[in-house]
Specification:
single chain, mainly alpha, 10 helices, 0% strand, elongated
């Protein structure tokens, strides 16, 4: 007989819905600041590229030393991106990771609960109100963060399936994001070479008038690719470990032990969330449809197989 856990009841409690709403708001703010940094970088790169190509027609408005201007603006653009990530984006990523760590602790009972100094109740109330006021239709999603059928499993099997679902989703999302970044970099590179051919530039002209003005955008893409690759490695490792735990509990339902392995996974994931670069919502929205159709993790099917396995184990006895 399977002893049911209380995940579905716990995630539907108002206090936990508010925690979920608060970390969604924090992550959305991180994405908003990131979009500002990217937008300004792209705008400055485009304006600088236009100025460099048309400097003969704009010489009355540009400094005499065009190369110095291009290099200076490029360096300032890259500095802006670095400072924006450090002071604004990372601030909300860190807050969101603490709130999600609290969400995992309250619902799954794993990890370490953030202290009131890290996350205060008033902060949760304020951020969750902002999110729910602007996104009232999201409340049902927040109260069913994991499928309610999860509660048909024993405690640790249910936690393992929740973690497996989370990690596999993030793993697939990061893989798709890597492809988007690579394609963006290739497109930018090919566009610059095409422009060089159209304008009949020599290599030296190409470097000063095209490549250098575009360097902040290229640097942003390279930085994003490297950050995402690191996040992808952690997501792959976490999903493999979670799958191993799920298979372990699936093969021997009656031998669930302590939560040490689940807690270790939780610590790894908390560290990941506090450093992982946020992905733009438009990509997530497009990817989500595909991933839902592909059923990255079909929880209902896995739970059904688990119950069949338990019944067959009892019948064999």
């Amino acid at each position: 007989m399977i002893t049911m856990n209380e995940i579905s009841q716990s995630q539907a409690e108002l206090k936990n819905v508010k925690i979920a709403a608060a970390f969604r708001y924090a992550y959305r703010r991180a994405k908003l600041w990131k979009s500002w940094v990217w937008s300004l970088t792209i705008l400055l790169a485009a304006l600088q590229l236009f100025s460099a190509i048309n400097h003969q027609h704009l010489k009355d408005y540009l400094p005499d030393n065009l190369a110095a201007m291009v290099v200076t603006v490029s360096l300032l653009s890259m500095l802006m991106g670095t400072l924006g990530r450090h002071f604004f984006i990372n601030k909300y990523i860190d807050l969101g990771s603490k709130l999600q760590r609290l969400h995992d602790f309250e619902i799954l009972g794993i990890g370490t609960k953030p202290t009131p100094l890290e996350v205060s109740q008033s902060q949760i109330e304020r951020l969750s109100k902002k999110w729910l006021d602007n996104n009232p239709k999201d409340q049902p999603n927040l109260s069913e963060w994991w499928p309610n059928s999860i509660s048909e499993l024993p405690e640790q099997s249910g936690i393992a399936l929740c973690l497996l679902s989370t990690f596999k989703w993030e793993n697939e999302l990061r893989k798709k994001y890597s492809i988007v970044i690579i394609l963006s970099g290739i497109t930018a590179g090919l566009a610059s070479l095409s422009l060089m051919h159209i304008l009949e530039y020599r290599i030296s002209d190409y470097i000063v008038n095209i490549l250098t003005p575009m360097s902040p955008l290229l640097a942003l893409l390279i930085d994003e690719f490297l950050l995402n690759r690191s996040a992808l490695q952690v997501a792959q490792e976490s999903s493999q470990q979670a799958l191993g735990l799920w298979n372990k509990y699936f093969d021997a339902p009656e031998k669930e032990g302590g939560k040490e392995e689940l807690n270790q996974l939780s610590y790894l994931w908390s560290s990941y969330r506090s450093t992982a670069s946020p992905i733009f919502d438009w990509l997530y929205w497009i990817t989500q449809k595909t991933m839902n159709k592909d059923m990255i993790i079909d929880a209902s099917a896995l739970i059904s197989e688990y119950e069949k396995n338990v019944r067959s184990t009892h019948d064999d006895r």
